C-alpha cells in the first residue's frame, strides 16, 4: 500500500528559517546560586542606590559621579581599576558619591564587539554563559570593595542575572525611545539615567522618564528563566543624561535650563546628569576633562539642576582596536570601545569635583 502525504505534510516549514543554532542558557537562579550575593555586597548596593536616589531628589547635596571604562573587556584589569577608584571614592566621599561604570553590554551603531557578556573571549565564540558568570563575579568582587557599580541595560532578559548587584542603571542613546526599555526601567530596583538620542533629541529622554515612572505589564523572565508576565510599580528615580549628539555638545547652560523646563512641564524632578564623553566630547577623551572642569565652575557658581556627571575613564588614556581572537596583543588598561581618560587625570578630576562641592556649600 502506498501512503500519500496529507495536507499537513505538504506545508512548507515556516518556523526558525533564520536560526542556525539553539543552545542552553543558564538560568538567573543558577547563576545567583553559583555567585551568591553576600551581606557586605548587599550593603554596598543598597547604600549606592539610596545615595544616588537622595542626590537625584535633592536630599543629598553631593555630586553623583559615574566613572569607569567605556566597556569591561578583562575582569582582572577592571578589578585593578576598581581598587584604585575605591580608594579615591573613600577620600572624596563627603562631597562625591562615586559609582563605577561597569558596562558589559555595548549597543553598536552598526557592528562590533557587543561586550563581555556576549563575547567574553573576544574572539567571536560568543560564550554567553561564561560571559554571564564572569560579569556577575566581577560585580560581586567590586561590590566587596565597597564601591557601588553602574551598568547599561540593553538586552531586557539580562537584568535578572545581575541587577541585584547594581546600584545605578543606564539606558543608552540608541534605546531611549524603545518601549521595551522604558518598561524595563519601570521594573528596575535602582535609579536609572536615560540618555538623549544620538541626534541630540532631549525630549525623547524626558518622555522615557515619564513612561518609566508609570507601572506596566509586559513579558519578561523569572529567576528560573521562565517566560512570565511582569507587573511593575514604575520607577520614580529615572533621570536625564545629557550626552550631546550629532549636532554637537549639549552641556551648555541654555540646554541644561531648557531640559529643566521640559522636565517641569512633564511634572518631573528638575535634575540632570551630564555625560562629559560621547557627543559632549566629540569622543575625544582629552575634551572630557575640559567639559568636567567647565561644569565644575558652573556648579560652584551655583548653577542649578546638574546633580552629577559621567566620565569614561580607564587606566591608560585613549582607545585601541580589538582584533577578534588576538586579545593577548591588547595594551593593559586601555579601552577597546570609546576613548577614555587615564587614571591620573581621573583622580585629579575627582579631587577637583570634591573641591567644587565644598565651594558650593560654603557659598550656601
Ligand atoms: O559607548 C560606546 C559607543 O559609543 C557605543 O557603543 C557605539 O559605539 P559604535 O558607534 O563604535 O558602534
Ligand atoms: C553607549 C554609551 O553611550 P551612548 O548611549 O550615549 O552612546 C555608553 O555610555 O557606553
Automatic annotation (TrEMBL):
Q: Where is the DAHP synthetase I/KDSA domain?
A: 52-349
UniProt pathway annotation? Metabolic intermediate biosynthesis; chorismate biosynthesis; chorismate from D-erythrose 4-phosphate and phosphoenolpyruvate: step 1/7
Q: Which Gene Ontology terms describe the biological processes this protein takes part in?
A: amino acid biosynthetic process; aromatic amino acid family biosynthetic process; chorismate biosynthetic process
Task: Output the Gene Ontology cellular-component terms.
Answer: cytoplasm
SUPFAM superfamilies referenced in this protein's UniProt entry, alphabetically: Aldolase (SSF51569)
Q: What EC identifiers does the entry list?
A: 2.5.1.54
Question: What does it catalyze?
Answer: D-erythrose 4-phosphate + phosphoenolpyruvate + H2O = 7-phospho-2-dehydro-3-deoxy-D-arabino-heptonate + phosphate
Q: Which domain of life is it from?
A: Bacteria
Q: Keywords on this record?
A: Amino-acid biosynthesis, Aromatic amino acid biosynthesis, Transferase
Fetch the InterPro entries from UniProt.
Aldolase_TIM, DAHP1/KDSA, DAHP_synth_1
Molecular function terms, GO-annotated: 3-deoxy-7-phosphoheptulonate synthase activity
Q: Into which family does the record put it? A: Belongs to the class-I DAHP synthase family.
What's this protein's function?
Stereospecific condensation of phosphoenolpyruvate (PEP) and D-erythrose-4-phosphate (E4P) giving rise to 3-deoxy-D-arabino-heptulosonate-7-phosphate (DAHP).
The protein's name:
Phospho-2-dehydro-3-deoxyheptonate aldolase
Origin species: Saccharopolyspora aridisoli
